[in-house]
Structure formats: structure tokens, C-alpha cells
Amino acid sequence: MTVYKRLLQYMKPYWWRILIAALASAAYGGLDAGFAYMVEPLLKKIFVTKDIFIFSILPFAIILIFVFRGTCRYFNDYFMRTAAQLAVQDVRNEVFRKSVFLDLRFFHQNQTGSLMSRIVNDVAMMQDGVGGVITGVFKDFIGFVSLLGVIFYRDWQLAAISILVIPLSIYPAQVLGKKIKINARKGQDETGGFASILQESLSGIKVVKAFSLENIMIDHFTRANLKFYEYTRKLIKYMFLSSPIIEFITSLGIAAVVFFGGSKVMAGKLSAPEFFSFITAMALVYSPMKRMISAYGEVQRCLGASERVFEIIDARPEIIDAPNGYTLTPDDNRVEFKNVSFKYQDDYILSDVSLVAEKGQAVALVGPSGGGKSTLVSLIARFFDTSEGQIFIGSHEVREITKGSLMNHIALVDQETILFHDTVANNIRHGKPGATDNEIIKAAQAAYAHDFIMEMPDGYETSIGDRGVRLSGGQRQRLCIARAILKNAPILILDEATSALDTESEQMVQKALDNLIVNRTTFVIAHRLSTVLNADKIIVLDNGRILESGTHYDLIRNNGLYSRLCSAQFNNEPAQLDMQ
Ligand SMILES: Nc1ncnc2c1ncn2[C@@H]1O[C@H](COP(=O)(O)OP(=O)(O)OP(=O)(O)O)[C@@H](O)[C@H]1O
Ligand SMILES: [Mg+2]
Predict the structure, then answer these.
(1) Which CATH number fits domain 2-314: 3.10.20.80, 2.60.120.600, 1.10.260.40, 1.20.1560.10?
(2) Ligand nearest to the backbone CA of 372
(3) CB distance 371 to ligand 1 below 6 Å
């Protein structure tokens, strides 16, 4: 019930729409009752008294009543559904707003496709539930109550018999409702499963094609889809099972009324028109009841989806601002790791790492793949909190610094060159929202990106696809570098992309990086010898531990892992320093 209450909270701002809808549905439901009530006097006037006037205006009255009824119904549906739509839109906005602020860890633990499915499908299911159900329940409840009034007014004994069956229908409705909710939830979990397959195969379509994985992907997708069908089938079964069950139960009521009412008519205690009026009202009373019962199933289905949505809304980030957090100043440029250890789950990925990057120094991190280089730099930006030990920027621990100020202080060029579906200019502008065109051009020039941008069809206004699909690897890197240059942050984290570039773009990227590094405290995960040679300090990281540190020449003299890997690499590939 609390989930439903929460849903209703979202409807609150749209109360006036709901009020109009409720009034319209009251009129609509009341009309049905009036109609049933009028059967008796009308039949009497026309067939017994033979009232010509009533008879001649009756057709017009019927048309008028139906026009009025239709209008009420339209108002009810329009205002109720728009209210539900608006409420659910708020839910969707909130899920998105909440989810983008969640920790990186959350996104590593949940598949992208599954999260997308919650925001798209589950919210849509909530909408069906909220809109349809509230509309129905309003109308049906008012209709139900007023028709009940009519049948009790006509003959309370018969009425009592006919409503005896109502409690009988509550139990099956509850049992079915429970099953509907469980299967709706499972079905939605499955939707998440196939949405993930969809997302992975579409965003990785090149690999799918290159390895001829089409049929394997189709197979995965078909199987996930079939599983979804299994739950949906159960859902359909339980949702529509309620109708025949309720119909059977109501038939008991109708049979009893026909028998007892018929006996009363025969005994002369009830007139035939009264009896028909009663039967009309009773037949009418059962249909809103049936609809309310199936609406109950619909509500359960909606609740199943809402639970999944509220799970995201309720998820709390662990990495949060300390109260009265410190705001960094441009002078806070020294970065120090003090006995830092870190684990994602059970195993330590970094153990007892201590290092210092003085203001303006460039520190290069090298070492075997999986050694923990990317993890180490991600701790500076507090993508994760250390398991043990501390990281200082200036004289403050990262946990004492406000997240906003920390992020403003750091520019990141990641191993994955992520660009958004937008114009080139806007992609660079993400480095500094509100930057002028001139600033963007300057950044692009420093990143050696200006020339190729000018060759594109619309220059800086050219739209690039998600992940910048129409750009080469080197061009993408240079756009990411331009974005970081524009940000002009005192601390720079550079996780060099390992993708092999041709010599020309390699040189361009290198020059762009040289421009970027100037005057900044830089952590660079280096795969290029030139970057490593220029570094003030080289840290060799293996298995989460610092093996060696010093300048290139120190380390060569040391004759350790660095010098061994270096000489092995340089014989074949002097431009690259890939230590895998
Ligand atoms: N989100 C994560 N959850 C759990 N384990 C992770 C996560 N990210 C990385 N790891 C593990 O942490 C270890 C270090 O990974 P990391 O990405 O830091 O290595 P790296 O030195 O940057 O390697 P590369 O040179 O290949 O980029 C690896 O064993 C990896 O499997
Ligand atoms: Mg890495």
C-alpha cells in the first residue's frame, strides 16, 4: 500500500485535473443510476397511463442523455489521463535525476540496458496503471454506489440477496492480484534482460559483425524474449481469469434474485415494472464491480513496476559531500596518496600506495595491464572512496572537499574517448559550459583539432554521432583533449587510449597532450615513450603495488621491471611503450 500511496503523492500537484475528472465521472456514474431508476416510472407512464407527451419527448431525451454522458466521459478520460501522464513524467524525471547522481559503482553493478528499461518500460507501465485505474475506479465506484442505492430503494430484501455475493468475489480478487504483481515484476526484470542484450549488441554492432556474432546475439535475444513471454503469459492468465470467476459469482446473485423476485411478482407483492427496474439496476451494478475487481489486478501490475522504479529513486549514493565541505583554491595543486589501499569487492586492487605529485609535476604511471593504474587515478576524482588510507589535494583530504569543487579542479581525458550526440562545438563546450565560440576555437587549436574540424561539412556545427562514430580514433582523442584544455583545471588526469594511431596523428595527439600538460599537476597513464620521458616522475605499478619510482634514467639504472620492459619494447617499437 505504501507504494501506491507514493504514487498518489505524485498525483497531488495535478489535483484540479483529478477534481474535474472526478466530477465528470460522478455525473457519468450518477446518470447510469438515474437511468435505472427511471425505467420504472417511464414504463408505467408509457405502457400503463399511455402518456403521449412523455412518449414523444423520450427519443430526444435519450439522445440528450447520451450526448451528456459522452461529454462527461470524455472530460473524465482527458483530465484523468493527462494528470496521470504528468505525474508519471515527474516520476521519470526523478528517476533520471536520481540515477545520474548515483555512484559509479552502482552503474558497474547494474546493466545499462536494464536501467534504461526501468526508466522507459516500467515507468510506462506505471502510467497505464495510474491513468487507467484511477479513471476507472472513480467512475465505477460512483456508479456502483448510486446503483446500489437504487436497488435498495426498490426492494431492500432483494438487494440484500444480490449483494451477498460481493464478499465472495473479494478472496479470488486478492489471490489473483498477488500473482499478477509477482509475475509483472518478474516480467519487467526480464525486459531489463533483453534490453541489455539489445543495448550491447547495437552499441557493439561493429564487433558483432566482425566476429559474425549476429546469430548468437539473435539467439540470446530470442531466448530472453521468450522468457519474458512466459511471465507475460502468466500475467495475462491471472489478469483475465478474474472476469469469468467474478461472472460465475455474480450469476449466483442474479439467479437468486430472479428466483426470489419472480416469486414476489407472482405473489403480487412486486409489480412487473418494479421488478424490471430492479433487474436493470442489478445488472448495471455488477459491471462496475467487475471492472473494479479487474482494476485491482491492474493496480497490482502497476505496483510491480513501481517497485522497480522506486528502487532506483531510493538508491542513495555512498560518496556524498561532507557537511561544510572545503572549496579548493587554484593553489591546491599538490596531490598526495598516503598508504592508500582499495578494493572493488573482496580483493585488494591497490595495496599501500604512497606517492606525491608536487604542484605542476607530471607523474607517469606505467606497468602491466590490470595493475591498477586506471583505478588509482579514479580515486583522485573520488569516483570511488579509498578502502584504507587517504588522498590529499593541497592540505585537504578528498573526502573533506565538496564534490563540485573537486570536479571543477580536475580535467579528465579517459581511456574511452566519449563524445555525445551533439555538435563538435557543444562537445568541446562540455569542458566549460557557457564558453564563447572563440574560447572553443582556441582550445581546438591547442588540441590540434581545428584543422580537421574546419574540413568537416559544417565546421564546428557538425553533428557527431554518439561516441563520435564518424570520427577517427585520433580525431576523437583530440576532441577530448580540446574539451580538457577548455576546462583549464589545475589537475589533469590522462588515461591514454592504447589504440594504435598512425604516425601523423600520433604526433598530433602528442603535441596536443604537450599543450595540455603545461602548468598542471598531471597524472598520466602512459603508453607512449615520449610522454614517459617527459614525466618528472615515473611510478611502476604492478599488482596494485608500487614497484619502482623515479625518473626514466633512475629506473633504467635500477635495472628492475621498468628497464626490462623498456628494453624489450624499444627493440621492436621505439615509439610505443606498451607493457602488457
Ligand atoms: N569496476 C570494477 N569492479 C571490479 N573490479 C574492477 C573494476 N574495474 C577494474 N577492476 C579490476 O581492477 C584491476 C585493475 O584494473 P585497472 O583498470 O585499474 O587496471 P589498469 O592498470 O588501468 O589496466 P590497463 O593498462 O589495461 O588499462 C583489474 O584486475 C580489474 O579486473
Ligand atoms: Mg586502465
Answers:
(1) 1.20.1560.10
(2) 1
(3) yes
